Protein: Class I SAM-dependent methyltransferase
Amino acid sequence: MPTWNDLTRNNPSHSENYAARWKRFVAEGKDIDGEARFVDALSPRSAKILDAGCGTGRAGGPLIARGHTVAGIDLDPVLIEHAKHDFPDAEWHVGDLGSATLYEQPELGHMRGSFDVVFSVGNVLGFIDPADRETAIANLYEPLRPGGRAVLAFGAGRGWGFSEFLESCTAAGFAQDLLLSSFNIEPFDTDSDFLIAVLRRPR
Structure:
């Protein structure tokens, strides 16, 4: 499967087209807030939340209105500019979840162990280079405070099996709380084509 960098390299308009697609959904009145409602429901009030692979901020941004403090990381500077424009009350940063030096960036070092919730939705994880997957899972674990929770989601058919993914999460230190197949809280089973893993950093 192509990585996000492959897509943007092959099509320089890809990022702007992606941003326009979500703005069009909003203009058409489509409900795109299911992920935000889910994350809000499992978060403590006034939580500190990290949107990992935030894109335009379409999922993280609405959590601000629900009283949370939100930060986001994405490797695409075009999408980060949209997030900054649309949700200026959040903290948005360019950064690659697959990078072993992600939190060595001066503006990101403060994130270690400071978040109540980290989430990555859509197909962010499916676009990560296979060589960087273990690093990406570690980079999702590291920002969590002890007892903090992660919501990690992606679809099947992107070259990363669900069981393999969950084994990587366990190896990184995550404890498993709940597995679902949709943000409507439908149960996950072996026939599911989408996984939402609710995980926890042990105390």
Summary: Helices lie at 4-10, 14-27, 34-42, 62-65, 77-86, 133-141, 162-172. The two ends are 36 Å apart (CA to CA).
